[in-house]
Amino acid sequence: MSQPTIGAPIDRVEGPEKVTGAALYTGDYTFERMLHAVVVTSTIANGRVVSTDETAAREAPGVVEVMTQRNAPLVNAGKQTPNNSILFLLQNDRVEFDGQPVAVVIAQSLEEATHAARLVRVEYEAQPPQMDFDGAERYMPEEIFGTPAAYRRGDPQAAFAAAPVCVEQTYRTPTEHHNPIETHATIAQWNGGRLTLHDSSQWAFGVQRRLAGVFGIPREQIRVIVPFVGGAFGSKGVPWSHVALAAMAAKLVGRPVKLVVTRPQMFAWIGHRPQTEQRIALGAMRDGRLVSMTHDVLSETSLSDEFFEGCGFFSRDFYPVDHFAMSHALPRLNISRPTYQRAPGEATGSFAMESAMDELAVELDMDPIELRLRNDAQRHPDSGKAYSSKHLRECLLRGAERFEWKRRNPKPRSMTDGRMLVGLGMAAGARETFRSEAKARIRMDADGSVVVQCGTIEHGCGSPTVFAQLAAEILELPFERVRFEFGDTNLPEAPLAAGSQTSGSVGSVVVEAAQQLRAKLAEVGGRVPAAEIELEVTSTPPEDEEYATQTFGAHFAEVAVDPDLGEVRVTRFVGAFDCGRILNAKTARSQLLGGIVWGISMALFEKTRYDVRTARVMNANLADYLVPTNADIPAVDIIFIEEDDPHVNPAGVKGIGEIGITGSAAAVANAVFHATGVRVRELPITVEKLIT
Amino acid sequence: MLSKHYRRGARSRGVALNPFAYAKASSPSAALTEFDGERGARYIAGGTTILDLMKIAVETPPMLIDVNALPLRSIEVTGDAIRIGALARLSDVAQNEILRSRLPFVAIALEQSASPQLRNMATIGGNLLQRTRCPYFRDVATPCNKRAPGAGCGALDGENRREAVLGTSEHCIATHASDLAVTLAALDATVHVTGLSGNRDVALYDFYRLPGDTPQVETSLEPGELIVAVSLPVLSYGARSTYVKVRDRAQYDFALASAAVALDLDASTIREARVALGGIATIPWRSPQAEAVLRDAPATRASFERAAEAALAGARGRGGNDYKIPLAKRTLIRALEIAAA
Hints:
Number of strands of chain B: 13
Shape of chain A: globular
Structural class of chain B: alpha+beta
Helix content of chain B: 25-40%
Distance between the termini of chain B: 53 Å
Shape of chain B: globular
Oligomer: heterodimer
């Protein structure tokens, strides 16, 4: 008999390849006759291209072609939908943001293409860009992601006016860029009318569909291969302009073309988390019970495209309040289109709401944990459904115990360590667990080994490991006897690897496939078959879920603040999470740890700094766009509140990818308030906000 | 002796750069001769600044002269000075025992510079010539008088959170980035230079130039001149010195404000003090004003506060960097408190 594998902290199967440098990422591939493309980007944010002089570039060594509006293949740049942005494919002369592609240089080597790209001279007619929320064209979309952008239940205004205790504040979060260590990359090859793409993507099938639209060909004529992805975090959820530009360039020159996005270009046409301004009004009874909640959000979007950060959804779906309203309005700025970034809506919304709850706790003179416990929803506040499982209370209590919260003197500036002010802060959070249809193929070979195939991807979360674990468990095989294959549109279709949905979606189809194979084997007496057995399975979530499915978390941060110099360092962090069944304790911990680190980063470091006069990013590199170093991250203690959830999905798992960053920034901000008495309502919390 | 690898126009397999020639010098005189023959050539030692700037097209030298083979790595104690070869790596210098005991603030400044990887490559000579992190200097699509004289200064009314508040002009407010140089300013170190017209010694005080209306001129080096060594006078009271650096994150970050101080204490009275500030000025900023306030003053918080006021008396913010004025004062007070303790 095999060892039970589910939950075991098994090392990721591709780990040795990755740490020895043997693992191949898109940019590592090379093909015969392959050329290299480098994108030239606009240096104005609003206006049009008047002329492009590529003479010098064409004469530079190694240059094969320069693609501009003049010779670019005519394609369909498309209309935006929630899952697709408008692409900038050299089809017209309009410039909407700084960093928009205006030409592509194709050369024998990357170095020659880079050099020649600098020789392309572009003349513009420029107008001042719009970068202020005030004065920007502003609109409220009816809905986004299929959900109304504005929503109301009860009469929050009247309830607020009548509430004995109130908090009303505005919170701000800046533009943040994802910056996975592997920048985006695409290799395009045409063979007749068929296109093969290697692409660093979270969704091979999404790229396939989008490019089919761009080139007006059936999607069956496009194959997308996604090798290992070196981080994505939402930035690779939709194909950006360079994917189509690589394919256009390959078409133009009739050879394979590789296009690797540079680090500065990661701040150009690749999406980012939008800047937000969030007004929150809370009304509560003296006992802490919330009676009114309003969450009004401004979320920047681009000139012609639509995306918003659904901050209000966090509040709508977390706290039980009879009188609630939210709205999302979108000022249009001269920026590239914002996009999903880890916990879109929840990361930013929880910063604002969980800061406001901390402010309410101060107003009430109540422990902030107690305030959460008194507002712990027993049914989903929006849908009214029962939860498939909910252990927020245990997260709060066990996290507090591990963190030794009881040592906290609630008075701000009351705790010190030598010269330093010490602050303890907490926040809570929830995130919806989604699931989409997924397909898989499972095969047992005559030697008894099993291969599971699904066209999902591996972007660092451990999918080939945990899905092999799931199949091995059901088939009662040693883990090593199961191999998981992924990353190709020639494999059965998988959904977008985002929204914390992969383990639930792909995991469910893997479970069902393994169960069906097991049943087949039982028919032949449970023996290894003489010939291979292969099955294809589709797992579809029910139309109307019976239960509300959410993951929950509680974050506890300790900070030390230099009272004179304003430096903030996080000294301890505890996170307690209810994520259903844990498939692999090691990869699960890593996911939550990564989310917490990012929450600390969001609280203290990250901000894309524009010159607002020109709308140009002035810190488009990893020395000036700050992310934490090892020295900035303390030991992080992660607790799983584990319980079998029989209702959530066949895999029994709740999403784990985003709850780590949902609430963690607020926990740090609340700790800073506790340490200093200064409430910083605009991220990041930098020195100047604490000393002046 | 020179070995040359001219690759102009040839297919390069290196990093993505403009075409350039490369020569390796084995003696200072060979380096100088090579420099003389190629207008716009640049020396390369650790490469931690020049390669970055070439990748972003801020520097486009036709030739790099590699000086790493020059015998300029030793660290020697000569009389009352520590002489550090220009090619000594930051990490090696930071480990020098005499430096650590006699002039600890230099070692602290080195250890708080950059990252371990960079400190293993970067040299003392190169650090003194480190270029500013001003985002306008480093972005060829924006105006910068330092990079393109007469183009204007994007930082004056732009994204200027990290720009300088002392030593600025209407043409340039770029902050000098070095930590090490702040301690060398406090020490008034001597820079030993060689050029085609011979060797000379330059006091650190004379080495850096304020931007004025020629921000492109950063030092008093003549074209082609090569730093061969730096001499640090071993202050009799150098053991009572410290360097305080305030930054956004705990490691691998440039100073928002820093202070290098050394105190000569007689019981609780300051006989003499050395004070220099970093992260807030266009050059490593020695403050004779603060030193004058501290001379013969009691080593008290009140004295330190007066010194800080004197040091920042002429400071001027441009909005995003206004906070640096109070921050620099507090940083200096903190450094004085630590040194006096």
